[in-house]
Amino acid sequence: MVASAASDTPRPAARRSLPVVAAARRAVTDGRIRTLAFAYLFAAVAYINPVAYRHTYPTLAQRLAFAHSFGANKAVVLFYGKAYDLLTIGGYTAWRSGGTLAIFAAIFGLLAAVRALRTEEDAGRAELVLAGIVSRRAAYVASVSAIAAQTVVLWIAALAGLLIAGLPAGGSAYLALAIVSVVPVFAGVGALASQLAPTRRVALELGGAVVAVAFVLRVVADTSSTVSWLRWATPLGWAEELRPFTGAQPLVLLAPLVTSAALLIASAAIARGRDIGRGVLPARDTAAPRLRLLSSPTALALRDARGTVLVWLAGVGGFALIVGVISKSISSAGISKQLQRELARLGSGSIITPTGYISFALIFFVLAVSLFVCSQVGAARHEEAEQRLETLLALPVARPRWLGGRLALAAASAAALALVTGLLMWAGAAAEGVDISLARMLEAGANCLPVALLFVGIAALAYAVVPRASAGVAYGLVAVAFLWNLFGDLIGAPKWLVNATPFAHVGLVPVQSFRVAAATVMVGIGTVCAAAAIAIFDRRDLLGS
Amino acid sequence: MTNAIRTEQLTKRYGGTVALDALDLTVAAGEVYGYLGPNGAGKTTTIRLLLGLHRPTSGRAELFGVDAWREPVAAHTRVAYVAGEPFLWPSLTSAETFEFLARLHGGTDVAYRNELVERFQLEPDKKIRALSKGNRQKVQLIAALATRADLLLLDEPTSGLDPLMEVAFRNCIHEAKGRGQTVFLSSHILSEVEALCDRVGILRNGRLVDQGTLTELRHLSAQTVEVTFDGEVPQIPPLPGVQVVGAGPSALRFEVSGPVRPLIEALAERPIATLTSREPSLEEIFLHHYDSSDGRVGG
A527 lies in a domain? Predict the structure, then answer.
């Protein structure tokens, strides 16, 4: 600006703000929906466990009996982690809420880091920021600060849930801290993966693999006393070793602190030297044409989703195998009839025999497959948001054919997951000598399908009616339905209300039998919803992101 | 012969905003039609309605006599589309993208496509995610041109292309016209439209404010006459339809709307050194439409 002009016209009072602060604020805003969804989950799970425990085991005698049987049960340890004290509400909550939420905290850290440090780059927006007066280092600091702020939100959410449930303030704050201590470590993992991977997708896959390994290590450490030192090898184990409500070990906090600092500093060092938009690992940018799976939009969707589906198959299958193997060690020795009934209520099944345990575990596979179908419907929305769907529908491609194909693909992949679940659970159990037939286990696996198909329909309907909010609606409904199934009964809700969730209508094979009527109804509703979705989508405008 | 494109009172509202207002548009088969308008005038909305991607609030759009909203698939069999932004599948290579789009279209001219790949200097084995915007635009263009579809719907197809590729593009459009294909070219690059199009429509705030061949459009606008004189500028009496818009020590510039003859007759007796007359460029016609009256350009 010319000097005279500057003196003549007073410069408009620009809002002064540090570029770093602006960038960080942008990143926080960008992740607000995900943060709020997780915060809600954290608060709900933190609240509901102590309430349910108080309701179900009001007396010390009941708690003693519960602790002796349930807490030592490997089956339960697999899902919720190691329990140190089940005689107090705090100890119980630390175990149930802490074990579950630590896993979600890991997922949150990974998603947040890859989103802030990689997705922005792949979308080309990072260039815009860096073309301004924001240095790379400042942009990195901004992203990390945003994740830190989001972590604080999660901590507050978990704390609020615990406090409202009536737990003491100090212990609650420490438990909430133990849970969110997992976030920075996996944010570090996500940050490093974002530097290494050539694309956002590969970064998420790398990070996801680390989360899976951390989980499996925790499971192995908690279920086998000979290798319990392995707990120190996984951030999820550190969260347990912090021992909230059961003899706190705050020094353990050094482990997540040092690890996340190391990961974040290493990532920052790589970030400084790397080309924007390119990872350290080479990307294959040229390839000889492969002409398979190009014949239709559905074929291309399969081609795109192949990797994801294989990862899910491996993950779900691997976990099914572990459940099968562990089921052998479950026994009912020394558990009273009365308590067995209690256990049946708490864990959606009688988890004191190998088959009972498999039945109990099944509901988690139903959940996994339901979440998977939501991700597949989400991929359809992604195609629309990225406006590639315009390119497709400008060709002689009918909308019902496109959406129908997408939904069929989701359903078929879900069927494959269901099959693998049954097959590998059987393989694991049979290898250990549990007496169970393959046919019966395939039936158990098939259990995953009706609920998943119902959610295909619901997610599709959400996609057709509220495209921009569809992912949140679909995942939210699955989460609410699942949590309601676990806790609705425990907090004393009336029967009809408890039964409102589809998860309550899963026949837990092999203990119960496959509920044909319920399955038919769920598939029926799913199909009607899907058909409605296709009809509605056929009549609406395409909507960009 | 049926028209390639016909719209009847085609209107689209998004919430309270009128994006397109009662558009009546006809493009004959074999015609190259230029669709002009600044950003936000409603060009892309028109194309989305023509493709049945968005639903008309009222009115209708037809491609070769087939309703675009009710029977999109039938309408699209004779159409190839190039979107304003090259949104393609990042994990596919260009060659794979060609194959995919060709199969969806129900066939393509592979020999012509290979020729186009040469002409546009594209590396077909590169993945889309590794291509620049201009190169991704080429992928879209080649895929569309190679179908030899009866109607090419092009939404600002040359955004991101370098001048050499722009020339290649113009040649392709000339060839398409030679083969009898219809081209609907939405653009805000006036020279491109001037060079390629038989007929031009000018869109403003969702309304078609002018339409016709370039000659017709020029008729409606003033032409410029510049005269220099030997010595001082003489007195010229006021004439109907003639305005003096500029003056120098020995030169005058007139804008003449309507017949130029009265001015020529008035000048005939004067000591004229040089006389040049210029038809308005498309740019002047375009600006004329946007500068006049309320002057508000749609956003």
Answer: no
Structure confidence by residue, pLDDT tens digits, A76-117? 666 677 777 778 888 888 888 888 899 999 999 999 999 999
Q: How far is B120 from chain A (nearest CA, A)?
A: 18
Closest approach of B266 to chain A, Cα-based (Å): 49
Domain count, chain A: 1
- Residue A490 within any structural domain of the chain: no
Is 3.20.20.140 the CATH classification of the domain at B3-213? Answer: no
In chain B, where are the structural domains located? 3-213, 222-279
All residues of chain B having their beta carbon less than 8 Å from the beta carbon of residue A393 are 51-53, 72
Taking an 8 Å cut-off on Cβ atoms, the answer to whether B103 and A294 are in contact is: yes
Whole-angstrom CA distances from B173 to A110, B139, B152 are 49, 16, 9
CATH class of B222-279: alpha beta
B105-129 residue pLDDT tens: 888 999 999 999 999 999 999 999 8
Question: Whole-angstrom Cα distance, residue B146 to residue B140?
Answer: 10
ipTM confidence score: 0.76
Produce one character per residue of A334-344: b if its CB has 16 or more CB atoms within 10 Å, e if not.
ebeeebbebbb
Strand order in the sheet with B223-229: B242-247, B251-256, B223-229, B272-278
Q: Considering the domain boundaries, does residue A64 fall inside one?
A: yes
Contact A539 B55 (CB under 8 A): yes
Among A290, A387, A388, whose Cβ lies nearest the Cβ of B96?
A290
- CB contact under 8 Å between B77 and A396, yes or no, is yes
Helix ranges (H only) for A348-435 are: 354-385, 388-393, 399-431
* Structural domain containing residue A260: 19-280
Cross-chain Cβ contact B53/A541 below 8 Å: yes
